[in-house]
Amino acid sequence: MTTARILDFLRTERPEGPCLVVDLDVVRDNFHAFRHALPDSAIYYAVKANPEPAILKLLASLGSNFDCASVAEIQMALTAGASAERISFGNTIKKERDIARAFELGVGLFAVDSHEEVEKVARTAPGARVFCRVLTDGEGAEWPLSRKFGCVPQMAVDVLVYAHQLGLESYGVSFHVGSQMTKVDAWDAALGDAKRVFAQLAKQGIYLQMVNMGGGFPTKYLRDVPSAEAYGKAIFASLRKHFGNNLPKTIIEPGRGMVGNAGVIKAEVVLVSKKSDNDEHRWVFLDIGKFGGLAETMDEAIRYPIRTERDADEMEACVIAGPTCDSADVLYEKNMYPLPITLTVGDEVLIEGTGAYTTTYSAVAFNGFDPLKAYVI
C-alpha cells in the first residue's frame, strides 16, 4: 500500500529513475501482527525478501530472529544487532567452507535435506543442531516452490537418524507451503507429515524438538488475503490436531508477509505504442521490468497493483513491458492489465506491494541499467 509517508517522500525528494520506497512503520506493524497471531512461535525473518540494513536493524531491535541463505546474509544479520543464536542457516545447499564460516561466527542451527549435506555439517560444524526439510505440494501458492528443496518424509527420517549417528543434534523438521500462500489450512498436511517424522524417530530413541513451519504468508496485491490472525488460528488448530498437548517448539519464517506491503516502486512510462494500425491493444513500456526487480511477474505469477494519477479516466487493457532489449522483459501480456487510456510518456506510476523480492532480484547492470534504488523511511 502507498502510505502517506511514502507519498510525502516522493513529493519532497523527487528521486530520479525507478526506485523502491519502504515504510518502516508498516514493517513494524507486520511484525507485531505475526507475534500476536502466533505468540508461541519464534519469528525468523527471511532476509532474502529484503536485506536493507534499516529493515534488519528494526527487526533485530524488535526481537526478531533471522533465516539466512548465505554467509553474507548471516553477516548482515549480525551487523544489524542479532546474536548468532538468533540466526538459522536455512539454505539446504551450502558450500562446506560456508558452513564452517557460519559455525565460526557462532551459528549453530542448519537446514539439511540429504545425507551428503549432513556429512558436510558434521565435518565442519560438529555438534550443531540440524533440521530436515520435508517436501510439500505447494497447492494454493501464487509463487509455488519447486522440488529443489526438501525430501520425502521417510527420507527425512533416515537423514535425521544419520545426523544423530554422526554426532549432530537432530533438532527438528521444516517445510515451506509455497510463497504467497492464500489457503489458511495449507499447513495442516505438512504438520501431519512432521508429526509422523517425530513419531518414527521417537521409536528409535531420537526426540525431535522443533518444527520450522517456513514462510508462505502473503501480502496483499490485487486480491484481498487472509489476515495474519486467520493464519495463526488455522496453524495453531493444526498443531493441536497433530501434536495434542505435547506441542513442539515452532518457528515461522515470514519474508513477503513481513515487508511486501511496506514497499512501493515509483516508475515512469517510457513509451506507449501499438504494433500495427489495427492493433486493438496498446503496449505500455515502463522504466522497470523483470530485470529491474519485477522478476516475480515471470509467468505472470505475481500481479502487482499499479496506480496512476489518471485512474479516474477510462481504462483499457494493455500489455505492460520493461525497458530492456530482451524479449522476455514483458510483465503482463497473456492477462493484460487495465490502465488509463490517457496514460502517456513521462507519467509516473506507483507499483504497490513491492517491498519483497524486488531489489534482491534486480540485475546489477543488464543493458547498462542501474540496479533498483531503495529508500527506507
TrEMBL record:
Pathway: Amine and polyamine biosynthesis; putrescine biosynthesis via L-ornithine pathway; putrescine from L-ornithine: step 1/1. It catalyses: L-ornithine + H(+) = putrescine + CO2. The keyword Lyase applies. Its cofactor is pyridoxal 5'-phosphate. Pfam families: Orn_Arg_deC_N (PF02784). Its EC number is 4.1.1.17. Gene3D superfamilies: Alanine racemase, Lyase, Ornithine Decarboxylase, Chain A, domain 1. Transmembrane segments: none annotated. InterPro entries: Ala_racemase/Decarboxylase_C, De-COase2_CS, De-COase2_N, De-COase2_pyr-phos_BS, Orn/DAP/Arg_de-COase, Orn_de-COase, PLP-binding_barrel. SUPFAM superfamilies: Alanine racemase C-terminal domain-like, PLP-binding barrel. Residues 26-259 form the Orn/DAP/Arg decarboxylase 2 N-terminal domain. One of its GO terms (molecular function) is lyase activity. It is an enzyme of class 4 (lyase). Keywords: Lyase, Pyridoxal phosphate. Belongs to the Orn/Lys/Arg decarboxylase class-II family. This is ornithine decarboxylase.
